[in-house]
Amino acid sequence: MRSETRLPLALWVAVAVASVLVVLAPLVSTLGGLATLMLGSAILVMASIGLGVRLHRPRYPRAWWLILVSVALALVGNVIWSTVLPSSITSDAAAINVIYGITYPILCAGVALLPNHRRPGAAMIGMTESAIIACGVAVVWWMLFVDPRLIDTGGIETQAYLLVEPFLDLVLFGLGVRLLLFSDSHAVCYWLVAASCAARLAADTAYLTYGSSAGFPTATSVIGWVVCNGLLAVAALHPSMARTVPLPANEITGRYSATRIYIGTVVATPVLTGIFLVREGLKDTLSSLDVVVPVTATAVTSALVVQRMRQLHRVAARRATELEQALNTGEVLQQELLFRSSHDALTGLPSRSVLHQRLTAVLAADPRGALLLLDLDKFKDVNDRFGHTVGDDLLVEVSALLREETGGSLVARLDSDEFAVLLTDAGPDEVRATAERVLAALRRPVRVQGHEMFATASAGLRDLADDLLSADVVRDAYVALHAAKEAGRNQLALFDRELRAKRLETARTVERLRGAIDRDELLVYYQPLIRLADERITGVEALIRWQPAGERMIPPDRFIGAAEDSGLIVPIGAWVLQESCRVAAGWHRRHGTVVSVNVSPRQLREPDFGAMVLDALRSSALPPEALILEITEGVLVNSGVATEQAISHLSMVRSHGVRVAIDDFGTGYSSLAYLRDLPIDHIKIDRSFMPAPGVTDPASRNLVKAIIDLAAGLELSVIAEGVETAEQVTLLRELGCERAQGFYFSRPVPEADADTLIAEDHHGTVRA
Q: Going along 521-592, which residue ranges are E strands?
């Protein structure tokens, strides 16, 4: 649609032409001149409508074409009037009014269709209000013009035909009023058309009052007719003629000012009718028409008011229904939002907040039962290997299984793979049996998207007691859950106070460990790696120790697990690597000694692990071939993104010359495939495979021999750990093991002692 702020040139031309015709209108005094003036006026309207439709392209131009047809018929009437009928304007006035009367239904249809735009329900909106106002105007019009001119003078019997056009003008006026009820500040076109309807009523009323008796239309009538057509021409060229004005909602039209006019009309019509009848009665000129017409108009107005009230009642009823539906919808939506805020979107299980509410209520009423917390074992590997869609479906299956196995107990989802079951009204034996039944059910395979999967879980169980808060119960259940994980997963742990004390000790250990590096409390001890062929030191394994100031040394098994779980192993491991490379660089330059450093699975998940290793080598000037990184075999045989990332890191550092050893071989998964395909160079046989000192164990001997032979076939070197006796050394040498380490050769010692051992070994000092 074109912008309505830029008015076309044709509109200003139409305004100019219409103004000229209005100026000429009072000068017309002959029938030929009047016919010529109206001819020019009609041509202006038709040309403007045709140009306006083409220029502004309204979506539904039918209303404008009807207006054009009515003006064209009026033009034909003017031609017939001026050429066929006698020159006297009153000689056959009835026939002339019939000719012009034909144009009104078409014109009324065009004006009525202007706001319609083929929209459902638009045809009747506003009709009642405009009819009420038109009836009120009709009463006034009858009292002021018709009664004095035709009734009181007795001319109604011979000149009734004069009422045809004014009555039709009243209908057209009502349709114009309807346009104003629809209009807004941008619908200039509607205002112009409404003004045109009012001008036509004024012009025809002037002809009825004075022109018909004078034998020629008065200047008021002629000007009114010209103004009527001029307003239509300008309206057709105004850009707002293509605008689709919004329909009033719920059949209610008009603004506050229009409503006041409507109410004023309803009140004024019967009052004016009464005044008119009283006046006619006092003048003794009261006739039947004086009573019938105003009273009928008043009755029609009253009927229209009743109709409008019925419409408003329907609108109110519909609004009430819509409001009720909206309230019901809002209530449903509120309940839905409340449910979503308190339940898991994937499984539909209650959330942590619901669990706390129910747990609080149970503790306050009858605290018989227990809280069971479950964490799926290695669920992250499922997402990494099969994708989150499969993981989500597995969670849904687990949720259904928990509901089925626990009956009516509350099952909640706390986190990604964490669930809680609130077991109530049950004794210790019953809740323990239920927990074991749940774990047994989770050990059975689950079919998810064509994959047979196992969703084993670690579980912690905490009995309820009336002296506990809900937060205490949840905390203690988590303590038991972590104990189950530390014990090897896929099992149930019951909470006791020793677990809490252990957990608190672990938390204190983590807090103290955070500043251990800055306080220079961490040390690196070194245990020699011995070549069994000549029992010479070829390397050392770096082992971390923690020596808090003023305290006894804390062994690794008391803090390495806490460091791994808390993530502190990352900075600690980086420090150990830097320190070990720094110390070993001098030994390697002097004696060719290599250093072996343990790497945790958590370190291998760091994106910059490879860069960190190369930086440690660069800063210490230790050659890459002098560094061995020891990892556990579980790092390489687990599936998923973490394993792929670990393999990528190890492959990168191996490409620079760093070697990789599998620590504690045989205690984990022991897959032959990973020995063949993955980036490793050495195997370290775990101490658990070595025959016990002083005991002849053929099975252990054969197992160690099988590992050594397997490594030899894969061109991997072997290091035996935990060697404590000469018999073990002899056995390993017989079986072809290359290197070993253990207390038989040396315990882990500080840097200075290790330096002495290496130096003495290099100078050939005999070991005691």
A: 522-531, 536-546
| Residues 630 and 663: beta-carbon distance below 8 Å | yes
Q: 3-state secondary structure string, 689-714? A: HCCCCCCCCHHHHHHHHHHHHHHHHC
**Residue 228: φ, ψ to 5°:** -55, -50
**pLDDT over 70 (residue 93):** no
Tell me the residue length of the chain. Answer: 768
pLDDT category of residue 162 using cuts at 50, 70 and 90: low
pLDDT, residue 309, reads 67
What is the phi/psi pair of residue 422, to 5°?
Answer: -95, 105
Residue-level pLDDT at 121: 59
Cα 588–592–597 angle (5° rounding)?
A: 60
Instruction: Residue 293: name the closest of 130, 139, 119 by CA.
Output: 139
Is residue 553 within 8 Å of 544, Cβ to Cβ? no
pLDDT of residue 90: 44
Supply the pTM of this predicted model.
0.52
φ and ψ of 553, to 5 deg: -65, 135
Contacting residues for 597 by C-beta, under 8 A, at least 6 apart: 541, 542, 576, 577, 580, 581, 627, 628, 629, 630
Residues facing residue 536 across a β-bridge:
531
| Residues forming beta bridges with residue 553, ordered by sequence position | none
Q: In this predicted model, which residue has the larger pLDDT, 423 or 333?
A: 423
- Taking each helix axis as running N to C, give the angle between helix 219-237 and helix 62-83, from 0 to 180 degrees, rounded to the nearest 10: 150
Say what angle helices 641-655 and 379-386 make with each other, to 10 degrees.
80
Using a 10 angstrom Cβ sphere, with 0-12 exposed, 13-18 middle and 19 or more buried, the burial of residue 655 is exposed
Between 18-32, 55-69, 120-134, 740-754, the lowest mean confidence (pLDDT) is in 120-134
Q: What is the DSSP letter of 647?
A: H
Which tokens hold the place of 482?
A: 């972590």
Give which of 581, 569, 440, 455 is closest to 513, Cα–Cα: 569
Token pair for 404: 């089925």
Angular region, 391: left φ>0, alpha ψ -120 to 50, beta rest: alpha
Q: How far is CA 91 from CA 81, 85, 86, in A?
A: 11, 8, 7
Distance CA 157, CA 150 (A): 8
Which of residues 253 and 755 earns the better pLDDT score? 755
In angstroms, rounded to a whole number, what is the distance separating the alpha carbons of residues 66 and 109? 7
Largest CA distance in the chain: 156
Q: Where are the beta strands (DSSP E) in 359-445?
A: 369-376, 410-413, 418-424
Q: Please give the Cα distance from 569 to 563 (Å, whole number).
A: 5
Do 250 and 318 touch, CB atoms closer than 8 A?
Answer: yes
Residue linked to tokens 């057209």:
172
Residue 682 pairs with which residues in a beta bridge? Answer: 661, 717
Identify the three-state secondary structure at position 343. Answer: strand
CB 476 within 8 A of CB 526: no
- What does the pLDDT look like over 511-555, one tens digit per residue? 888 888 888 899 999 999 999 999 999 999 999 999 998 889 988
Angle at 405 between CA 404 and CA 406, to 5 degrees: 95
Those residues with Cβ within 8 angstroms of residue 745's Cβ, 6 or more apart along the chain or in another chain: 528, 530, 535, 723, 767
pLDDT digit string, tens, across residues 646-657: 889 999 999 999
Q: What HEC string does 106-134 produce? A: HHHHHHHHCCCCCCCCCCCCCHHHHHHHH
Q: How far apart are CA 534 and CA 762, in angstroms?
A: 12
Are the C-beta atoms of residues 205 and 173 closer than 8 Å to each other?
Answer: no
Whole-number Å distance between alpha carbons of 414 and 484: 18
- The CA distance from 331 to 266, in Å, is 42
Question: Crossing angle for the helix pair 569-591 and 751-762, nearest 10 degrees?
Answer: 30
Q: ∠ CA(561), CA(567), CA(570), 5° rounding? A: 100
